[in-house]
Design a protein that fits this description.
With 580 residues, the chain is an alpha/beta fold. Helices cover 45% and strands 13% of the residues.
Length: 580
């Protein structure tokens, strides 16, 4: 690290996307954005020329990604290979090609302008998705778009490898493919002008245990190469060219944090129970067999949410029963006998599939999605259910229906499940006859009828992201009103508390798989409500376990009693912070 410069220091606030503290030297990445020219094509010859340029750029981009994937020197892991394979599928996606060619042919746009317009549309669609994993895929779409544009303009950026040790990357954003080719032995932290807790950069940083502060805004443009940087990923602060005293304080904090991290890792094999003996189950939210394997390394006791959408994305048609069976079976095998809650497909207006013509909707979150599609397209639903049931032969799967809002929906879903079982019986195929069946509580009507639903299912899983969004009528992706998205709103907390209360009353299990489950500020409150199953990103498990083993259930009950008597979220948050 360079000696501290005689420069005026300053502080930047952003999103605390990945915890930890790092002190190092800035490596600033400036990208030359390719913008639309607005030039229209004049004749058929120019149209054909632009089409040919686009096709060559796509092929060059595919070749580049294949070269990275096959580069043995990079020693890519399975997750990184999967990302690159997904990029190849996106680059060759028929819908993307059709849309670009349509704009060249019909709208007479040049190839660059057509790609920019189509990719921007795809990115916005992904960003609007409520599911954290799917929303993060916007970065992958943007990445392949930039790669095609770079090939069209012959301006591929190869300036990511000139790192020294203790490098802190400063950028607008870091694309998935850039992240894969970065030498992570030299990088110790990230700070970006865009992004949030669910962005690809945040997911990368957490998986690599690197501190990250994202969404810092344009202030990062003031940072220069070689500036001394402190990244506090726990508080969401970036300090540029700190003074000696500040540097000493943060050096001490960094050592303390690293020691604490080692302690958290040592908790992997410790039983998760409160100090007065109440057993709590911590599971992981996963999307693949690789996620399942990684979660066990962090001490997960199975998967509280297995998102099945991944298999349906980045392809040209619906996966067959056999493809789905293989996909689910891999997760069952990697889980080492621990329970896996499999959520049936949750797609819809906000999670489109290129090969599934969904109607354009003004309010996709309130429209044709999730269980509504499954019940309407019984053929697709039965295929998925049969594949899940066949994989359940290992006796550790549980089936969960998303976005149930009425008793009629639940009963129809269960009826179709019985039909799928009957088809397997006739075919003499093995499955778990007693597979537990549950539902997501993510719609206010479901929470309000928890006492009724509890008599008809084996378990609940509370999805706080959508429950909060629907209860408060707030689109959490809308920048103008994002501050109104508040899981500590008393109305949201009352619905959560009532759901848990009714589940416990009728002796069914109840878990939580939304963001609130991994929020340390909420842990004691949720314990006090009677929640005994939490599901979250694997990397959050050790810190939540540490909170649980160092608190008593009786104390949590007191915290809950005081919070539930409050009438506004500010008072609730202030109280929980003071009593953390």
């Amino acid at each position: 690290m360079k000696k501290i410069k005689e420069k005026t220091g300053f502080e930047i606030s952003g999103v605390a996307a990945s915890p930890g503290i790092a002190i190092g030297s800035a490596y600033v990445v400036r990208k030359n954005e390719i913008i639309s020219s607005g030039t229209k094509l004049k004749n058929e010859s120019e149209v054909l020329n632009e089409i040919e340029k686009f096709k060559k750029a796509v092929q060059a981009s595919v070749d580049d990604v294949e070269a990275v994937k096959n580069n043995e020197a990079l020693k890519l892991n399975d997750d990184e290979v999967n990302v690159l394979e997904a990029h190849i599928e996106l680059l060759t996606d028929p819908q993307l090609h059709e849309d670009v060619l349509q704009k060249i042919n019909a709208d007479k746009k040049n190839a660059v302008d057509a790609v920019i317009e189509v990719v921007d549309k795809f990115v916005e669609v992904f960003k609007s998705m409520s599911d954290e994993y799917m929303s993060a895929s916007a970065a992958d779409v943007k990445d392949i778009g930039n790669r095609i544009l770079g090939s069209l303009n012959h301006s591929i950026d190869n300036g990511w490898q000139n790192f020294q040790s203790n490098t802190i990357i400063i950028a607008e954003d870091i694309s998935p493919s850039e992240a894969i080719t970065i030498d992570m032995t030299l990088v110790i932290a990230f700070a970006t002008s865009v992004g949030g807790k669910t962005s690809h950069t945040a997911i990368l940083a957490k998986s690599k245990n690197l501190p990250a502060v994202l969404g810092c805004g344009n202030t990062v443009d003031k940072i220069e190469n070689g500036d001394v940087i402190i990244v506090d990923g726990t508080k969401g602060v970036v300090i540029v060219n700190p003074g000696e005293k500040c540097l000493e304080e943060y050096s001490a904090k960094m050592r303390e944090y690293q020691q604490g991290n080692e302690f958290l890792r040592s908790l992997k094999s410790v039983s998760c129970q409160t100090s007065d003996g109440v057993k709590i189950t911590l599971r992981a939210n996963i999307s693949s067999a690789e996620d399942m394997l990684e979660s066990l390394k962090h001490g997960a006791e199975g998967a509280g949410l297995f998102r099945t959408e991944l298999l349906f994305m980045n392809r040209n048609s619906f996966p067959s029963e056999e493809e789905q069976f293989q996909f689910y079976s891999k997760v069952a095998l990697k889980s080492k006998g621990k329970p896996v809650i499999v959520r049936t497909i949750d797609i819809g207006g906000d999670k489109p599939l290129g090969y599934f013509n969904l109607p354009k909707e003004e309010n996709p979150f309130l429209g044709y999605r999730a269980i509504r599609i499954s019940l309407d397209r019984k053929d697709l639903f039965v295929t998925q259910l049969k594949a899940i049931l066949r994989a359940s032969a290992m006796r550790n799967f549980r089936i969960m229906f998303p976005m149930i809002s009425s008793l009629q929906e639940l009963r129809l879903a269960r009826k179709i499940l019985e039909e799928a079982k009957q088809e397997l019986r006739k075919a003499n195929l093995d499955f778990d006859e007693n597979i537990p069946v549950g539902m997501m509580i993510e719609v206010p009507s479901a929470a309000l009828m928890a006492d009724i639903f509890a008599k008809e299912v084996d378990f609940f899983s509370i999805g706080t992201n959508d429950l909060c969004q629907y209860t408060l009528a707030v689109d959490r992706g809308n920048e103008k009103i994002k501050d109104l998205y508040d899981p500590y709103n008393p109305a949201v907390l009352r619905l959560i508390s009532y759901t848990i209360e009714q589940a416990n009353k009728y002796n069914i299990s109840v878990g939580m798989c939304g963001e609130l489950a991994s929020d340390p500020m909420a842990t004691r409150l949720l314990l006090g409500m009677g929640l005994t199953e939490f599901s979250m990103s694997a990397t959050s498990i050790p810190s939540i376990k540490n909170l649980i083993v160092n608190n008593s259930y009786e104390e949590a009950r007191e915290v809950c009693g005081k919070v539930m008597a409050m009438d506004n979220s500010k008072s609730i948050i202030d109280y929980l912070k003071r009593n953390a």
